[in-house]
Fold this protein.
Amino acid sequence: MKTKFYPLLALLITFLFTVYACQKDDGFVEPTKKITSINTNILRIVDNQAGGINIFVSVTDQNGIAIKGLTESDFDFSYVEGGVVTPVKPTGASFLPSLIITALTMDYSGSMFDDTVSIPSMETAISTFINLKNSLDQIEIIKFDDTVEVVVPLTTVDSVLLNGVTDTNFYGHGYTAFYRAVEQGQDDVWALAQTNPTYLPSVIGFTDGWNNLAPYTPDSIIYKALYNQIPVYTIGYGVLPDTVSLKMIADSTGGAFAYNPSAAGLSVLYQIVNGNLSNSVVIPLPPPPVKGKLMYRVTAKHLCPDGYFKDTDEKYFYY
């Protein structure tokens, strides 16, 4: 499994220019090469309640920008059992997730108050994410320090979410219960998504430091994410985030990790995550051959003016 890490400078440059790269537009002449590689990310695998499974896949360029317009023909699928790789063919056409359900966790621990820019920048970035969402997508706002509070339960109403982001009733200033906040988000999005195989649940965890309250390791987050097929995106900020753990959580669960040492590019990071979720594709596959834990492998193939690119990702599925 691959760790997704996006340097800030490349993100800022890509946000301005890459939107034009590799578009399926015959009338567009690409002036310069932009894409140098692609990243394939299996977000979710779930029983589709129609005799098979749905597999959710996101493909990005080297800087995390989503590649749009992919279909089932752009992928090769297989499962791995006992060291044997068995190819599988889609049972239908690809489609977009019918609903994206996201829990956003916001860090209000003491270190976030060391300056006057950290919290406003975080709030602006998360507001940007909310403003980009589809009108039907549901978002939840969770704020945490050493306590965890669901400030706004899952809702589609943008104004309620935006008011929740800037609401000052959550005081903060305590320790960092980051893992507990992410687990709260996992439980909440799972409650809404568990009966619908076309929904894409996710958690976006933001922190500027290290988790220092129980649970002390990310093991429970990763186990729950794999069992319930919930990708966790992690965003580190400042000079002290636990980048090793944040990358491990994202990589193990099908999400992605992004890091920004300053406040300047936080909104860009949230726009990139939004693009990953909203441009993922869902492909129906045959049912697994056996019950239990099975690894699926997906290879994306992308031909564009910049060249021909391939990349593979793997993820476990409990069937």
Summary: Residues 178-193 form the longest helix (16 residues). The longest strand covers residues 293-304. Confidence is low (pLDDT under 50) at residues 7-32. The chain is about 25% helix and 35% strand.
